[in-house]
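User: I'm new to structure prediction. If I give you an amino acid sequence, what do you actually give back? Let's try with this one:
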Amino acid sequence: MIPIRPATLSDIPAITRIYAEAVTHGTASFEIEPPDEAEMTRRFEHLTGNNFPYIAAETGGTLAGYAYAGPYRTRPAYRWSVEDSVYIAPEMHRRGIGRALLDALIVESETRGFRQMIAVIGDSTQQTPSIALHAAARFKLVGILENVGFKNGRWLDSVLMQRALGAAGTTKP
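Assistant: Good question. You get back a string of structure tokens that encode the predicted 3D arrangement of the chain. For your 173 residues, that looks like this:
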């Protein structure tokens, strides 16, 4: 069992390092320059201050990964839909940490009353583990936006996956 807990401000240095690695060497994020700790703190406080879940996985006293749900879009009608983000330290990949974080994030998002979770997965060719992770968590493929990002010298797709939460669209919020 992988311990999952709410992320805290004291996690920001480790979260910043994990995200910087993903931005610099990967295609999961379409950011080009990794944000510094001050910006990651601002993002963390914005999300947690607006009732969005932000969680962390810790193994052996070290932050192994983190996940959060944030607004899918900013228009008011999207208020009940969230976009998930899951990032794992490179040395911790393939240990079930991503699945533990995603499962916990789903539960936490349902608890907070959100009705849909959207995964916007960058790079359909390099992010097949993320696509498989979301499929295993009962997300369904809803589309691929082709060639919408340019990073690391090539065009990248975005894979869109969706999962109903709680009562989903069967009742009013």
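You can read the tokens as a compact description of the fold. Here is one thing that stands out. The CA atoms of residues 80 and 96 lie 28 Å apart.
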